Amino acid sequence: MKTSLKPGIKYEYSFTVTKNQTVPAMFPASDEGAIRPEVFATGFLVGFLELACVKAIIPHLDWPEEQAVGTYISITHLAATPPGLEVTANVELVDVDGRKLKFKVQAHDGIDLISRGEHERMIVDKEQFMARTKKKLEYI
């Protein structure tokens, strides 16, 4: 990691919600999922906030060899967002403790605050991380 990786880094990231990010799209083969509301799914919201945090720190890592994996997230999902609305994430790196990174996160859809919370990531060497992860396949 570079010496520029310090608390105070902020990042804003936006995209327009499509039907592919709605609740029924989370598990399309599920009968229960198919009849649930067509709104931005919490699972995709989590991924969106994680991606915003990653984008915030890429310039401060030895990317792509060095990356950061999610280790903790605690967020609210306060309001429903239909497809077609743009959602914006605002993230801030608030603490760097060795390889552990802590972020404040929030998202809005232009009408409502839809999420807020905290997220943590751990900096890893991608090659070493994947080698350790692939060893799990030896147990199946």
From TrEMBL:
Organism: Polynucleobacter yangtzensis
Stored InterPro entries: FlK, FlK-like_dom, HotDog_dom_sf
Top-level taxon in the UniProt lineage: Bacteria
Binding, CoA: G70
Sequence positions that bind substrate: G70, R121
Active site: residue positions: T42, E50, H77
Spans traversing the lipid bilayer: none
Protein name in the entry: Thioesterase
Domain Fluoroacetyl-CoA-specific thioesterase-like intervals: 33-127
